[in-house]
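Form P-L/3: holo structure prediction, ligand uridine-5'-diphosphate-xylopyranose.
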Amino acid sequence: MDHQKDIRSSYNNSHVLLLPYPTQGHINPILQFAKRLVSKGTKATLATTTFVHNSMHATATAPASNLNIDFETISDGYDRGRSTTEIKVYLQTFRHVGSRTLAELIMRLRDSSRPVDAVVYDAFLPWALDVAKDFGLVGAVFFTQSLAVNTVYYHVHKGLLRLPLSDKTVSLPTLPPLEISETPSFVYSPESYPGFYYMVVNQFSNIDRADLVLFNSFHELENKTVEWMEKLWPVKTIGPTVPSIYLDERLENDKDYNINLWKPKDDTCISWLNDKSFGTVVYVSFGSLSAIEAEQMRELAWGLKRSNHYFLWVVRESEETKLPLELFKQEAFEKGLIVNWCPQLAVLAHKSVGCFVTHCGFNSTLEALSLGVPLVAMPQWTDQTTNAKYVEDVWGVGIRARPGENGIVRREVVENCIKELMEGEKGKEIKKNVIKWRDLAREAVSQGGSSDKNIDEFVAKLSS
Ligand code: UDX
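OUTPUT (holo model):
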């Protein structure tokens, strides 16, 4: 892979405006995709909402100016922060105010030296396609979640999968049979999340008009589903969007730039990891949104302690009060470091990390798989339940920590899963699998790999 060479050797006159849904798990992959476009000589502008723009902290080993990405804002109608918890109300306001402010931005950029040719918009914001089409621009929808998960949502949208689910298992083209609890939570329990249910099903409302359908996945990872979906739409897998510097040893001295909506209180975790031996640390994180029940936090904390391994645990500030204080008073907890946010890619790429206890957000799953880190899957909601199924049964890159009474994963289950991965025979097999996937992921984004070619084709489409 030689992205630096790409920058020098290719220049095209096209300009892509990218519009993420304003949460961490959606900003990250679109920002990384923007970097890839820039490496192909395309100009990229990332439009975030005003509130996100004001909350952004860059974690950078390189200045933003090195990035060659422009940052602009549009409004979701909540410039001072979201004052509604009703997701449907939020989406409707965003649609109304966002359509207008996106159109104003496109008009402003039209008068610049490089007008916009294409809008890449998050699948949760389908109205952006209508705006792009009003201006005669190429419109490409960007899915941050897997093809498998979106196959489920598509079948619900089409009325081909009727809710509430009545059969014991769900059988859909190219997917393994899914138990009800392995379908996304918005599908097995739509009444608990009416707004989110509307959001995921509405992704397909105008998709037939999209010029391209992009997925942060790679062909080899979901090949049968890609081939099935290609019969419906012009699908292009462009992932994993993990930056090249983490995938290619030759680039390890290169610089990176990322955007975070949280600022770590301190910067200790990498130096803490530096002191540990190869593969000895359990990394624990539940992403940017999940709220864990206090009882689950306690069981997890005890499970980590009982595993007797070093651990680095991300507990966001909003979750801190749930930590079981009784444990911290004990000396035995000294093997752990708790931080409120960390540079996750650098952590997963660190030699001392041996496994990842994760909620199976799709970014975290793809990042771990691309960096060769086995997973203990503890899905919470949304697509994570289906991702966890794939982690264990389809890709063989981890084990599920199964909940017991009251839906809580008990301490002995956490302990056993960690020990199994870090010390057991099954762990060895899983490590072999994850290395196989890591290599395939690297190939996909290397020059001439499946995702790299797809990005080239996208860029060529813009130039023509
Ligand atoms: C949510 C859904 O769970 C996910 O499946 C969907 O694809 C996007 O929206 P989230 O719960 O935040 O995302 O999880 P995840 O997809 O894993 O994204 C979290 C991102 O934040 C990752 O890119 C991860 O690297 C980053 N992160 C997380 C950090 O940089 N530091 C941290 O301490 C924790």
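COMMENT: The chain has a mean pLDDT of 93.
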